[in-house]
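Task: complex structure prediction.
Instruction: return structure tokens for all chains below.
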Amino acid sequence: MKLNRKWINEEFVDLSHISDKEYVDTLTVFGQKVETYERMDAEIKNVVVGKVLSMTRHENSDHMWICQVDTGDGEPIQIVTGAQNVHQGDLVPVAKHNSWLPGGVHITKSNFRGEKSNGMLCSFAELGLTQNDLPGVFADGIWILNDEDCTVGQDINLVIGNDDTVVEFEITNNRPDCYSIIGLARESAAAFHLPMRHHEPVVKGSKAGSIFDKLSVEVPAEGLCNRYSARMVANVKIGPSPKWLRQRLRANGVRPINNIVDITNYVMLEYGQPMHAFDYRYITSGKIVVREAEEGETLTTLDGNVRALTPGMLVIADDNRPIGLAGVMGGENSEIVDDTTTVVFESANFNGTSIRQTALALGMRTEASSKFEKNLDPMMTLPAVQRACELVEMLSAGDILDGIIDVINYVPQPRTLPLEPEKINHLLGTDISKADMIEYLRRLEVPVEDDTILVPSFRPDLNLTADIAEEIGRSYGYNEIPTTAFRTSTQGGYSPFMLAETKAGGLCRAVGYSEIITYSFVSPDIFDQIRLPADSVLRNAMRIQNPLGEDSSIMRTIALPSMMEILGRNYAYHNRSAKLYELAKIYLPVEGEVLPQEPKMLVFGTYGAGESFFTLKGEVEAILNGLRIPKATYTAVKDNPSYHPGRCAKLTVEGADVGYLGQIHPLVAQNYGIDTDVYCAELNFSKLFELMLPEPTFTPLPRFPSVARDIAVVCDETVTVGALEDVITSAGGKLLQSVALFDIYRGNPIPEGKKSVTFSLELRAADRTLTDADSEQTVKNILSALESRLGAVLR
Amino acid sequence: MKEQLERIRQEALEMLDAATDAQALENLRVKYLGKKGELTAVLKLMGKLSAEERPIMGQLANTVRADIEQKLAEAKAQVEAKALEARLLAETEDVTIPGVPVVMGHQHPMNMVLQEIKDIFVGMGYQVVDGPEVELASYNFTRLNIEEGHPSRDRSDTFYFDDKDEVLLRTQTSPMQIRYMETHTPPLCMLAPGRVFRKDEADATHSPMFHQIEGLVVAEDITMGDLKGALITIMQKIYGHDAQVRFRPHHFPFTEPSCEMDMQCHKCHGEGEVDGQICSTCHGEGWIELLGAGMVHPEVLRNCGIDPEKYSGFAFGIGLERTAMGRLKINDLRLIFDNDVRFLNQF
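Output:
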């Protein structure tokens, strides 16, 4: 909401002694936040009213004139102009040497074919004005100021009405009253503890007849129109509005059109009540019907667009067609034009949600609709239409017909609230006296009688003592409320799951992975990009009905694609390596449930020199170990199409599948623009959390020495190290403390298709020093099991 | 015999003095003190001495042995020290050669700031909780006093999954207020950080997904003064104790009274301009918005079965991206979600 300070100063409360900075700071802290503010004269500097004393033809030009211009500085200055509408004796805007015009145009003295020019005579466009601001002024030449109330040497900003500051407020939803000059004047007066002047519109009336003989209003759409007030003007003389009115409109960013339209806009700014003016000629049968649009109806709105209407949209219609889109925009078919003679002023109160939805559906949010959507005060329609009629009389723009049509479907009941000073002080933590509270409320024009607050109709936001507490609090000053420290017996902390997440993050970074954060929503294309089978359950994702775009339209059911996208992006950035992890949610629809499951996934992705299946596996093992997850089993997986069929393992912990690890399939890497080896792991962190072992208790250190034994066995290539280890572990019995792969050897003298695998064994007994016989027996058991079960023989 | 012993002593001491390595010393030890050494050989002759001479010679022999042993120890120490010195010299490294690289990962800058904020709150008695991101409209809106038809419920603002607009991506972390109050009884003190979603195209200051940190305190006798006290303490911990803050009224449907908290711009110190130019940090406002807050609306308490006559509370919501970007001087929100390693490695 924009506001020009001069309007408030002149009409409601004189704050001209308050600087702009103080004004905006005070209003902001009072609760009306200022977004920006700007002096209207900031753009035009050193441009004054000048009088053309003489004009002579330029000797070397067939169109230029050399003017001697009095700018009030004593000596006249010479200015060369190419304009042809200037005459001796005219008053004109003069941009002097070193002056500034809108758009950052800098004017300095110059030379035109040998003649000095100490500045420039200006057209109104060069001063940032339009024909609408200056109706009747010749546009294609210098702005002649003879009819303006101005004097030689005067700053042109004063002539234009730029001696003003435009302040833009961020109005909160709960304060529809502040979408008006009057509302903001009320807040301004209260913020500075000054009384506000009120004006009751007075309509003198005429002998032009009665509205009831000419117009009837029906409101079948009761629920969507709370009130419809109308008055009529006869003998209308369409013409430009006076300068003061045009200037106020311009300062508030409204284009002046003609007196009748300007009056509706002026009242909308002043009261916050959108109004509309219809040309009575085009209201068939003199009948206005406020109804819902019918299927297939169209309306050409004032902006020239044909609008297809649907039921649910509220229209203003005459006997047989819509003539306006209620609360949004009028229809072209009943527009005020130059020869309009009779006007119907509409001042209505429409259902905010309905107006908002209509405006949204048609993509035409207007000044009026944005006001209506806040749910305006139905008590405002009458003063607003009266004010419009008063202005018609002030401007001699027509004769007001007797009578007011006022269809009322809803009037807010007078609301009262008890004034509860103790409760208010208790909530705020203050000690404000009752008398002060009453005074604060009085300043806000909220009267209190006998400890009862009479809530005015323009304050729909005041419903509870808490609402009153806010009014008291902001009047007292939020920043004046004493700061205190509460005590509670609550214990702060993290859930065990969060602690596990924090720990996991630390472990990931410790082994070299950096954290990423990616979007929860993804493209449906991801499934194909990672070559997920067409029948995979993971393709069953939650779909956003109104996504920003197709590429962010489903909730991810798998975290790998987000990682791949980021790896691909880094690869495209020519980053030579990347080691990344993300710990974030996936969203899995659950049959019969409204909300999905949101387990957390821990995903790793890496590419670059030195990365391999086994570096990633080692890192993952270290992290799982750090998280106290029991030893995972790694099973070769050939049918996960996202991964290299020979380099992918499924991780199983205590029988539960917890994820995959491996090299990304080259075709998948290619889909993400990566033509180097990529390694990823996807672990279900929520499952891992369930598997985390409790805090360990101390195990006494071994009292007896261990014995180390290395065994090398030759087996078929197809026998896995994991299988060998399993056999060794089970055959090793109680004495086997640990088994570790030492070496794998292929080649002479090992036959083709075979490999030699060496393990280091550690043997120990808890209760004695092992004898050679003990360890030999254990090794013998292991070797015989390896041979019988896996055909692995001692080398 | 005496002369023999004296000669052995003198000879041994001289030889030991001259020896330069451990092997030479060992050879000398064997030569003089060994089982077949010279001193031992002399001592074997003791039996032939008279009873008067024997103790005298015995004593002398012991002295000689002790002298040689002492000298041997000294020489050994000296030789070892020299050898060590030589070894250390040989082992000299160019200390300017870089260390063997240990690659450590980096925490995402936003989570870095989040972790710090969470720790501060935990220290002040807040329990950190997490909740669903796909949420019901009743939690995200209705029970927070955001009625049907409210603009924030529009499909132009909120992502929906169903025709009836009942299931959505939460637009704020505030539904966690309801979820926590439903399952806990006052006094309670909660912090709920997490992802939130709004239908905004990504640009330098907007993202369809971002993060909020919700806070909620409900107990007996909680006042707006307590809200101010808590938030000032926290912001000074995050931004430093000289941070100047202010509160100004605002509107949220689920708090009343409501406020926003600003921090004075650190660049222009509230003036809004620097050297006559509009301050680029606060865009001329002089203040930077930090968070929205307020006293929990009585209706919201009632919605969760908490008696507003007995209990009061405050709630606040901090925008994490804004906080992190302000702290770390990150100038474009897109960098946060771009995850370029050149960006991540800076933190």
